[in-house]
Amino acid sequence: MKPAGGRVPEARRLRKEFDRGFAEPQPDLEPGGAALLALRAGGLDWALPLDGLGFLTRAVEVAPYAGCHPAFRGLATLRGEAVPVWDLAALLGLPARESAAPWLARGAGADPWALAFEAHAGLVRPRAGEVADVPDAGGAGGFARGVLRLGGARRAILDWGRLRAAVLKAKGET
Predict the structure, then answer these.
(1) Distance (Å, rounded) from C-alpha 126 to C-alpha 123?
(2) Rounded mean pLDDT, 24-40
(3) Cα separation of 133 and 159, whole Å?
(4) Cystine design at 30: which of 71, 104, 126, 146 (Cβ 3.0–4.6 Å)?
(5) Confidence band of 95 (pLDDT split at 50, 70, 90)
(6) Residue 55: phi, psi to the nearest 5?
(7) Where are the domains of the chain?
(8) Helices marked H in the chain
(9) Pick among 1.10.10.10, 3.40.309.10, 3.30.43.10, 2.40.50.180: CATH of 35-170
(10) What pLDDT does 174 receive?
């Protein structure tokens, strides 16, 4: 039995495209080849290196904790663990958007913490020339370690260590 309509030519085209992907040389990746999570917080585009990411999840209910730092959203249960959630936009000095943070990025490591943000645009593996080491690029309040130039747009690459230091400072642990 033959597939109906134009499915055979489409399947052949897809097979050729797939095979060609293995035959062509791979593009030069940025030295270090660090993959990045492209995201949106405070209405602006950013990138977070995957090396500091424990996991990414849709936001769950966050129990608010009154009287704390303005960037502290509260506690969430992630994979059976109570995790403090911080609004990434507020940490960056941007207006926090209470209803606009449906994503959580849990930081890697034993000490639980997570960043809440508006949206993500997937993973990016920068090619050579797409990353520039520009300290505090994009008005990130001292949190950026470089800039990703992708398709004519620029995203500040945030530094997990600097974000973590700001969280510890806000908690009074520095």
Answers:
(1) 10
(2) 66
(3) 12
(4) 126
(5) confident
(6) -165, 165
(7) 35-170
(8) 7-23, 88-91, 160-170
(9) 2.40.50.180
(10) 54
